């Protein structure tokens, strides 16, 4: 009888386009209010942890993610479990000095204390430990405000480049530390697409963003997972030049994951695509099982697939559908 893999072995095998014993399951985050409902009580969510450790005895997740994302230079406001930009503060080059002073010191040992606790938890349960970082693009447009960012692309691209440089240098320092900590992979969280296509023209992306992203990504010594919302496929050949191992989360309704599997399945691992617009928040457990089974059978064929939602498990998902997803993975996910 074939020996069952650990969660970490399973995840890393799929990440490198191999066929593990079962399709692994990864979520970039689970909102705490949803975790509370899954567990049936108030859960513990340590600083920086993207998923409460309390859900792991219930869900068959194979990885856990820690948040090393740089803060957005803006006034923020909370809506439930989500922090959103209220007012961008990076309005001109005069604000660049304040941006540098705003960012926390990435060389302080205490910055990594909670991450070390997550690593200990991951090793105890033999989970894959993932470090979420950014390269500086999405922090720049969020800190500037997207409208101002778009105007600056034409009126003052140097302002954008200087802003990305400040964020990028901070990210490089964090990545340098993370490389040595014992994480298994890096999750690059850079939203670069809307549902209908890239947020920038391919020409703009190649001229301004891609050289910057490559400069920062080249410091990553671990396997790379590139996450973006929407449909980035027009830019996928460019993203492959970053030597990424996987593309996440392949938003359902924006991306035809079956077509991507045919065209790119021999080049990168695919992550995600369980519908977060209808199935998980509004569908039935039966619909959740059917969709999960189809993704496992069609995208998971031959390996190189890690199942996940189209972004993360949000507070508006139904608990019964998350449990149905869990059950379907355990029933249909074995090779």
TrEMBL record:
The lineage of its organism: Bacteria, Bacillati, Bacillota, Clostridia, Neomoorellales. Keywords: Methyltransferase, Transferase. GO terms for molecular function: methyltransferase activity; uroporphyrinogen decarboxylase activity. GO terms for biological process: methylation; porphyrin-containing compound biosynthetic process. Signal peptide: none annotated. This is Methylcobalamin:coenzyme M methyltransferase. Residues 84-328 form the Uroporphyrinogen decarboxylase (URO-D) domain. SUPFAM superfamilies: UROD/MetE-like. It comes from Neomoorella stamsii. InterPro entries: Methanogen_methyltrans, UROD/MetE-like_sf, Uroporphyrinogen_deCOase.
